[in-house]
Amino acid sequence: MAITRYVEPGRVALVNYGKNVHKLGVIVDILDENRVLLDGPTTGVAREVYPLKRLYLTGLKVSILRGARTKTLRKALENNDICEKWEKTSKAKKQAIKMKRASLNDYDRFVVSNLKRRRAFELRRKAK
Amino acid sequence: MVKRFDWYKGEENKEKKQQPQNPTKLKGNIQAGQVLVILSGRFRGKRVVFLKQLHSGYILVTGPYKVNGVPLLRLPQKHTLTTSKVIDVNGVNTGDISDAYFKKEDKVKGSKEEQFFQDGKKKKAEVSQAKKDTQKAVDASILAAIKGKTEAKYLRDVFTLHKGQKAHELVF
């Protein structure tokens, strides 16, 4: 299978480690084979150098020139509704579920496990 | 007029027990009705309802007894884990329960010979009827508040860590 998601200016990436975890940023420039300059004006990610290991390349892309300034990038992101397109992807939905599960408190966790048990009971009863 | 000195204070003037200088501060702003998880001792893992702080600094909790077998219990807050769940305990009256409630009853004294012969059949520690009544009275309104709700099942459930769960990552 050929690589389709290139590391290029305009590639929308998801930060998966560090203080900006779970946020979107756009690759603006490439430093070397390991690091890129990332900027996310609409999502609160400051213009900074990120190692590629901390990023997940999404299928979304914005058309900007290499080294585009934050203001230009912001306009491009807003014109293309990148945030809305992102929310529709399955990766975004799965991330939301993961974060929801991590935020459940002790009582919520019990409610979930209780519902799962009841559902399993009903399914087994119907299967008989 | 010469001031009269009380060199030897009589029985009536015996000083009352001092208030503790630094009463134990409870952590995390727990309120009456908050569900706590007991972390050590006989009832470890059980979820119980916090009632009040006793004079000695320990906290008073109850199962309720009918739900999970935990009676009125006195324990240090350090041995508990606070959850964010609060159960309605408006009708509960714990005013007359204090540290004296938990004082051990005096052992039956007998001659050493008598005790030796009795050792063969050990008497099970019995709970006095008074304590059973107090337990019932305190638990009554809590049971009414959770009757038929998921909260009742929740209190019956025992807390454990499951596969993949990390205690430091869990939200309580």
TrEMBL record, chain A:
Question: Which GO biological process entries does UniProt record here?
Answer: ribosomal large subunit biogenesis; translation
Q: One cellular component GO annotation, for this chain's record?
A: cytosolic large ribosomal subunit
From what superkingdom does this record's organism come? Eukaryota
- Which keywords describe this protein according to UniProt? Ribonucleoprotein, Ribosomal protein
Q: What GO annotations for molecular function exist for this entry?
A: RNA binding; structural constituent of ribosome
Which Pfam families did the record assign?
A: Ribosomal_L14e
Q: Give the family per the record.
A: Belongs to the eukaryotic ribosomal protein eL14 family.
The question of whether Ribonucleoprotein is a record keyword is answered with yes
Q: SUPFAM superfamilies given for it?
A: Translation proteins SH3-like domain
Domain called Large ribosomal subunit protein eL14: residue spans:
47-119
Protein's recorded name: Large ribosomal subunit protein eL14 domain-containing protein
Q: Which Gene3D superfamilies match?
A: 2.30.30.30, 6.10.250.2270
Organism this protein belongs to? Euplotes crassus
From TrEMBL, chain B:
Q: Which UniProt keywords apply?
A: Ribonucleoprotein, Ribosomal protein
Query: GO biological process annotations for this chain's record?
Result: cytoplasmic translation; ribosomal large subunit assembly
Q: Which domain of life is it from?
A: Eukaryota
User: Could you tell me which InterPro entries the record lists for this protein?
Assistant: 60S_ribosomal_eL6, Rib_uL2_dom2, Ribosomal_eL6_KOW, Translation_prot_SH3-like_sf
- Which SUPFAM superfamilies would you find in this protein's record? Translation proteins SH3-like domain (SSF50104)
Coiled-coil regions in this chain?
none
Q: Name one GO molecular function term.
A: structural constituent of ribosome
Pfam families given for it?
Ribosomal_L6e
Kindly list the GO CC terms recorded for this protein: cytosolic large ribosomal subunit
> Which protein family is it in?
Belongs to the eukaryotic ribosomal protein eL6 family.
Q: What is this protein called?
A: 60S ribosomal protein L6
Q: Which organism is it from?
A: Euplotes crassus
Its lineage reads: Eukaryota, Sar, Alveolata, Ciliophora, Intramacronucleata
